[in-house]
């Protein structure tokens, strides 16, 4: 009887050993393996032996590089590329070319305050250049970039002055004369910009010219006549203020010069603030009309 039991046990062992492996390895309590489809960053899968040094290095590599102005220009140019098309770069092209210069006063208390204003996220305002009372010039944007200095404005038929102009801010609160070193630095800068970009002399204007309902800068203290004598802007011929023809239309004259006459009162005040200076009422006197007519003849 014992021999029979032993024989049956050996027989069962032989059968078990000869069974297919798939049957032997099958088990009901083995967990199901799931495939992780998330791509693993091999660079981050470092041995734990590296310890804190590895973590520090990984954190450092995660810090984005500081972009230069030229890098930003290239990035802006790349965003205009159609991703559904093949890409190969041509070698002949231009980027934004400024054709106007808009002069402002800061209406703040220092050049440092203005610089800080242009670097705060919530202000949404900037300029290409800021000039201090001592003549210090600070460039804050590449000339080819579009600054946010003009705001809602219009000159002639142009309603987006930011896209075609350079903005220059003068450190001045709007209630005081502009110091000589500041004006000298401005003249030098304007000469460079005019030569470099071939800007017409008529296209050097003030913020109040393009936004008469909102702005009064660069204030009545700004020496427009002096700038015009150097080729930056327009001034009238004081020695030849001839009588105005009876059919002269002052509204059309203002419009031809460039002013937005949709608010005629604001346009007249902006004109007189710049060219008459001593009187900024909304009424055009005979002298004012002579000045306007003289300027109008330079444009038309």
TrEMBL record:
Annotated signal sequence range: 1-18
Catalytic reaction annotation: Hydrolyzes the link between N-acetylmuramoyl residues and L-amino acid residues in certain cell-wall glycopeptides
Chain ranges of the N-acetylmuramoyl-L-alanine amidase domain: 86-219
UniProt keyword list: Cell wall biogenesis/degradation, Hydrolase, Signal
Enzyme class of the recorded protein, top EC level: hydrolase
Superkingdom of origin organism: Bacteria
Pfam families according to UniProt: Amidase_2 (PF01510)
CDD domains: PGRP
GO molecular function: N-acetylmuramoyl-L-alanine amidase activity
InterPro entries recorded: Amidase/PGRP_sf (IPR036505), Amidase_domain (IPR002502), NAMLAA_amidase_2 (IPR051206)
Keyword Cell wall biogenesis/degradation attached: yes
EC number: 3.5.1.28
PANTHER family recorded: N-ACETYLMURAMOYL-L-ALANINE AMIDASE AMID
Name of the protein in its database record: N-acetylmuramoyl-L-alanine amidase
Organism this protein belongs to: Sphingobacterium bambusae
